[in-house]
Design brief:
mainly alpha; 0% strand; 69 residues
Length: 69
């Protein structure tokens, strides 16, 4: 089972993720709720696609790929 979600307030963590420009990015997204929701939804859809693609690969193929770690 997996829980897939997104955070509309991702901009609050920009200073941690991007130390060099985090405050600038946080300020840029601060008053734009619609834009943040659109970006967060798009990013969540991409990550969900990657997650599902990996889960759909045959078990043996995943095992061979991960055994090289």
């Amino acid at each position: 089972m997996a829980i897939l979600a997104y955070d509309v307030d991702f901009h609050d963590r920009m200073p941690t993720v991007f130390p060099a420009r985090g405050e600038m990015l946080r300020a840029a997204f601060a008053g734009q709720t619609d834009k943040r929701e659109s970006i967060a939804g798009y990013n969540a859809a991409l990550q969900t696609g990657v997650f599902l693609t990996d889960r759909l690969r045959p078990y043996e193929q995943r095992r061979r790929t991960n055994s090289g770690r």
